[in-house]
Amino acid sequence: MIEIARYIVSGLLLALVQTFVLQEVNIVWWIKPMPYILLFFNLPVSTNKIGILIGAFFFGLTIDVLGGSIGMHSAACVCLAYSKHHLDSYFLDENSLQLQGLNRMHEEYKGWQWFYIYVFGLTFIHHLFFFIFDYFRWSAILTIIWVSFCSSAVSTLLIRLFRALNVKK
Amino acid sequence: MLVIFRWIRNQAHFLLFILLLLSSVTQIFRYHIYQHSIYFGQALGAQRQLDAWKSDIKSYFNLKNVNQQLIAENTLLKQQLNWNLTFNSPRRDSTYRDTNTGNFVKYEYIQARVIRNSVQEQNNFIILDRGFKDGIKRHMSVVSPMGIVGVVVESAEHYSLVMSVLNSKFEITPYFYDLKTSQGVISWNGEDPTVVDLEEVNRFVNVRNGMKLFTSNYSLLFPAGIPIGTIVSSNSNLKSNFHRIKVKLATDFGQLDVVSVIKNTYQKELDVLNQAIPSSNTEDKND
Fold it and tell me: Which backbone phi and psi does B96 adopt, to 5 degrees?
């Protein structure tokens, strides 16, 4: 129960940072980093997949309500949660994670490069869906891919930073 | 039923994903003007496209009816053509009277469908699905939208027999539209069903390839101005006084379907006059 409350609080904090800090700061006007998806990487691998899907929807909806982008983040988060479940079942071996004393995806599992490629891949999926709904034009598909790529790179860097801060804590 | 429940339970993750995604996407379309306008613009476009396809399919199945209507309309229009009207004709109940000019129609068109047709024989005949009950009689001319077809030689109650242009006994004098003259005799030599011979055209007549030939106003069977064909080749030599001309027929006899049988409303008068021609005249001529 405490664990769930901890995730809800950290989710709310990430949502607040996203909407009141990152949404207001313009790095380059078209780059929109969304490191709040860090929450998904902190979830234990054994978490119920249906629960993650519903949680992702409401988490995204919270950011949407706070940031005034109704539907965008919730759609992207739902896509991320669904993709993450399938990617984890392909790339993660739960037994070997447990052997290493881990219950979630971690740098120690296969090294930090592998971990950040995994993070970047999922971030890209999330950002891609977000920007598809944001631009909503097939003619802008190349722009969408480019913006998603750049924003994912910045988001991954921020996730790295947040994780470093968390470790220090 | 159990199978369906089992399937839903197995696919719960995917179905929930779709449900949540649809819910989010619906919110996007509902609360964002830009996405809303694009989505509904495209949805409307798709709907219009679907409607167009639906209409195309519907009209395709309706083509037969449309075709029938067009044939009927064509027949009526042909009856209204100016060259088909005669001045000061005696009033007859059976004839159509043009409302604009007050003239009476000289020719009536009876539409018929070809139910048997041949092009391979030396003497080809066509059978139509209309007979004397529909007003078809001997010596009535038959035309298609492309050009002349033949002449009715027999009519039964519901069917009639037509001597095709592709018959060695069929002859007609053409009108040279470019030369404003009627000369020669067209007949078929029994070889190519698309080409007929034009003979007895004087060597000094300036015949050129591509000239259009129509029915002449000297014909007692056909109304004037119906296409016969186009000259494709002509030869002349000093030994003969006449050209040897090949004419490509305007009518494609392999494609015949709907034809019009032309009825001259004053045919009886013509018959009476023909009979009144003294037989001695013809004997003199032959002599």
Answer: -85, 135
